[in-house]
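Researcher: Here's a chain I'd like modeled. Treat it as a single chain, no partners, no ligands.
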Amino acid sequence: MRNLTGMVVVAALSLGAAGIAQAQGTSPQSETQAPAAKQSAPTIKAVQVVDLKELTPPVRSQVDAAIARTSAEDMQKLRKSIDAVPEMASALKAKGLNSSQIVAINIDDKGMLTLFAKTA
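Model: Modeled as a single isolated chain. Structure tokens:
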């Protein structure tokens, strides 16, 4: 959590076809993607869910700024992507949450996917 340099927020949608396929353990089906895009997609090794309330003020402000730059359409795409990956949906369900509560994500260089949730 300390290193948010690799923060991926909804607008970037790094969980595009290649990222989702890798998270599910399959290869991407799209041949229209550039080879560089296929190689740079992160491999997700673990998923954690963090409530925005748990973040330190500096980290929270970074996440809030990223959320402010995110369109409703991009947010909807992210949530559909999360629902499509059983590991992510399962991690949310274990915390009593669902994808509609996710406002941002982060994938670090070690393959840890963090789902940032906004709860009441």
